[in-house]
# Entry
Amino acid sequence: MRLIGATEGQKKVGTFAAWLLTQEIETKIETADDGKVEIWVKEEDHFKTALSQYEEFLKNPDDPKYSSAVGQASQILREREKKRREIQNKQMKVTRSSGGMGTPTGPMTKTVMILCLLVAIVTNFNLDETQREQGANRALQFVAVDQPQSLELVEAYQNDRDSLSLRLASIQRGEIWRLVTPIFIHYGFIHFIFNMLWFLQFGRMIEGRYGTIWMAILVVAIAILSNFAQGVAPARMGGSPPYFPSGILISSFGGLSGVVFGLFGFIVVKQYSDPRSGFFLPQMTVVILLGYMVFCMLPVAVPLVGQVANWCHVIGFLVGVVMAYLKY
# Structure
């Protein structure tokens, strides 16, 4: 900063400072030890111009142009403050929506994760394959029909695993919850941890930005459509038909990954189409998840990652994309 002058009269100096502000010259006013009011120019490049203006001001401080500049200067300061607040709000929104460590976890995100954890504990993460048609798995699977109805169905449809009547047997009996509940079933620690980490990040972002109700709608819609697609798709195309162990007609797929890919699709669309969302995913994250989704559909993926519910992934992702366009 450079001092351009010191004089008596706070009001007059303030009027002159307002005039300089309208000329895009910023100043700072201070009171010296001797009681005089000093006026400093903040930018070195403006010093000569400000000094010349100051000398002109001293010759005629009552010139109306100085007093009339006060209102204009006040408007400039208000606009600057407004822009500053807008930038601050955007920064806060991005921080909240980006799913950082300081971002609170919403009730819907917490509830889904707690339910997944409880089911994982009760089922021992499905590490024992002989128990997969019992207990919580039997209660939550897409299809689960006990004897004697199971025997009647299998006989009536000649054990055709692609028969929609077999695949929708539980739904047709009014057990509508099975369209959603497979998302709580997981197969092994890695499957569980993978889904929980991504769901936590994406859930924080979406629920923090759009609220719990919209998050619930999104999760349920993705779950229903992705589970339905996986449950009815032909076996030769990667679907999950029911099988018939120990007299029970039951399907065997589950996991939160369909919902995870749905939330991912929602965020990607919003990130690139709606700057107001405040969403941000690094490009590498987008590439990795899209690459993983495509990789799991290749035959070489089965020996490496096992059987994957690809219909859940793809349909979940597409549902998330569509929901992003519907949400404004």
